[in-house]
Hints:
The protein has helices at 20-30, 45-51, 63-66, 108-118, 147-156, 182-190, 219-231, 233-250, 253-266; strands at 6-11, 33-38, 57-60, 75-77, 100-103, 124-127, 139-141, 159-163, 194-197, 214-216. It is of the alpha/beta class. The strands form 2 sheets. The protein has a 6-stranded parallel sheet with strand order 7-6-5-8-9-10, sandwiched between helices. Helix 6 (182-190) links the parallel strand 8 (159-163) and strand 9 (194-197). The chain is elongated. It starts with 5 loop residues before the first strand and ends with a helix.
Amino acid sequence: AWKPNLTILVGGLALETIPLAIVHHLCKRAGSKFAFWSLEDPYELDFMLRLGHWFDLICTTDFSSQCFYPGDWFVQHLPLASPDLPAPQVGFKFPPTGRWLFCGVPFPNRINWIKAIRDTHPDGLLIGPGWPNYSSPTRVSSRRISREMLLTLYRTIPLTLFIGRRHDLANSSRVIPSTPGPRLFEAAGCGAAQLVCDSSLEIGCYYEPNVEFLPACNIDEAVDCLERASKDSGLVELVAQRAWKRTQSEHLYSHRAQQLLKWIGEL
């Protein structure tokens, strides 16, 4: 008896156990549009190409993956976003240190960046399973932490490193991801100053370099940013505030929901 106007599936399809054919049939009977927000492109692109025909609308979080979908499918680019979080504390004084934070899985490209950064700025905190046991002052935690704890760390450690991943799960087309992942938006929405390492040009569509984040295309630039941040806490605070304001105006999940509903209205 319950007939929704829209049914949305969010996540990935590699481990999906939902019987898509049955859900599609029920949506047709109820007059509901069936949409999917794919969070794992391009890493699960092969699964999407095999199963995506069940959906009326596919939203992919990766821009570079969009052109690999069949031309008769309704596919749109919808990046990830941030929850609506409180503004960063104004006037918070970081200690005079180049301390940094990174949370994530140690894919090979990330290990290379961390090794190089530690040569000059070893005072950092790594969170995630599988990281090497680096010597002090680098601290490593393999434990899963709560989301609340991560948000606290974003606010209290001077610089948060953002390093994209380069890893294939089911991507026979070997598509290179272009859109930044969720932590870029969430850290900015929390009020973190971010050092973005090895970023694609697309990140400039969401945040302005040297204004809302510090960019580093190579290790020399990363070291320079860490040096600047360690000497100028005002710069760190300003970058964090600007990133939070940009997130509030453009990159909350409410903004993504509005865009998705707009596309549904075009069907």
